[in-house]
Amino acid sequence: MGFVVCRIRVFVVLGILPVLAPAPSHAELIRLEIRTRVDVLDGKTFGDVGPYEKLRGTAHFAVDPANARNRIIADLDRAPRNSQGKVEFSADLFILKPKDSSRGNGVVLFDIVNRGQFRLLSQFSQGEAANDPTTEAHFGDASLLNQGYTLVAVGWQFDVRKGSGLVGFDPPIATDAGRPITGWMRAWFIPAEATGSFEYVTGYNTAAYPPIDLNAPHYRLTAREGIISARGLIPREDWQFGRMVDGRIVADPNFITLKSGFKPGLTYEVMYEAQNPPVQGLGLASIRDMASALKYDPGIVAPGRYAYMYGSSQTGRLIRQLIHEGFTIDEQGRKVFDAAFVNTGGTGGGSFNERFARPNHLGAFTGTGFPIQYQTTTDAVTGRREGLGSRIPAGLEPKIFFFDTSSEYWDRGRVAALRHTSMDGTRDLPDAPNVRVYHVAGTRHGAGSVPPGDNGGQFRTNTINYRWAHRGLLAALDRWVRTGAEPPASRHPSLSDGTLVARRDIVFPAVPGVQWPMSVPGGYRMDLPGPLSALPFLVPDVDADGNEVAGIRLPEQAVPLATFTGWQFRSERIGAPTTTILLGGSYIPFPRTAADRERSNDPRRSIEERYANRADYLAKVEKAGNRLAEEGYILRGDVPLIVEEAGRHWDWRMIGDSQE
Q1: CA-wise closest residue to 377 among 336, 341, 424
Q2: Most buried among 175, 310, 420, 435, by the most CB within 10 A?
Q3: Which of 327, 328, 288, 291 has its CA nearest to residue 306?
Q4: 180-203, pLDDT tens digit by residue?
Q5: Are 561 and 590 in contact (CB under 8 A)?
Q6: Going by C-beta distance under 8 Å and a sequence separation of 6 or more, which residues neighbour residue 507?
Q7: What whole-number distance in Å separates Cα of residue 265 and Cα of residue 608?
Q8: What's the CA gap between 642 and 160, in Å, rounded?
């Protein structure tokens, strides 16, 4: 049992009195409180790095509202200040580090936690998902630890629920000269089954902003088909905030009860007034200042020479906004983050730094806006010139990988094609020197696995596990930062070679029983009104099987047993079958045999017509994997694991799958 003495005050709470060390001057991180510190897997040795330890605690910050790097934080001027005129806040902190930091690889890898969930081990080390990894299964093959990474998660999202092992943070509340600030809230939801009461704050909405008055007559509830059709107003006397308990309605701000009951598949939206907005933008400062302290204070608990960040989906969008708003540079003008791995962030930002921020909001039609490119471009509609990197001084740019799936091209206005084309969709754009753009062909928003699951869609869920590319590209990103070695070239569909096409021009195979996405909504921006908000809807082109032809074609997709998509329609069972499931993906299997193909009138060749046998299939998978490894998109050592995974897929499809 020990403690760290460093220039930042540290409380190590391990059954002893807190230990204090002098605070640094000009420190944004003013105090660390380490509550628990335990050996990982009972002191197991990881590679040449040795044993790891796991730390949990709280980081305390104080930022200067007058500092130019902080002025972009919404409502910071309305937050309470301490005696030095600074604004204080705190955040949960989670660290996995080598016990001897000098034996690590010098990289502090930040998991920009999605809704408070620590996921680096499951994304990069094949571990089982766990917010508090404690077992061998949670650490998977421990590849990140064997390489010596220090893994860090610091809270940034105010509405993460307490007491659940999640990583959140506690910002101050903004006021109007001491008086509460009020504002209108809107929350939409789609029930999957008929019900009288619905907990509308679950999933992607939150209970952070309860209604001021549960019975206010001017609050509104609407219903509509799909996402963007006209809303119909539900009379106020027909609904109320509350839930059914033993046949009676109990007041509850998290539930809505509707007299006629909620119908599956309809989109409902509630509008009400709330108060007391937190200064959520300080969450971005939390990430910046924790990284700055770990990078620039050699006496801190987990020091590093480099700082990288990884974020997925919600936090992929957050990283885009962190970069755009200048939070890769600290209050003293120093470069904080050397690299960023932006997974499934599409073209969006989010409700992360504004009054009444809603960081859980999905960003459908609300996250996409100018600028999209890192480099400075001109918005043809407004004439505005800007880029994601406009606030980052020359020479301090982070190396950035943008990594997206097919869902980001297809789903609800995410229009990922605009990462690499002009805003009007008429020409390809080159990468900024510090940026690479990767599309993984035929994938859904979340990595898949075999056997495919059931998410209520018309088909089973897409099985492609794109994490193999994560592992290869992280290694490439690390080399790029350390040595300047060029990473694998950007790979995505493009206009110049005809692999990126307008949605209206795509041609799918006429597979019986398949509803192709020829009329799904897409291509809108949130920063312009009405007709001006329309954006081009460009998607990856497909082959005769309906599989995408451009991007990183992982072996499962390049040597296919099915058609893999980044979209999925709702089934009759959950209602609204012409509406897509948010960020879903489909697995549409090939017929097993020629007889099956002829019987079903499927135009796609059967599996037996493609591959002589299991060994032939796996040999083709191995060849495709070796080619990707040579190009640097996956690791050479992962090819046998990919082949093994493909074997399980073959066995499930050809032997164990009883459902056609």
Answers
A1: 424
A2: 310
A3: 291
A4: 999 999 888 889 899 999 998 765
A5: yes
A6: 542
A7: 38
A8: 36
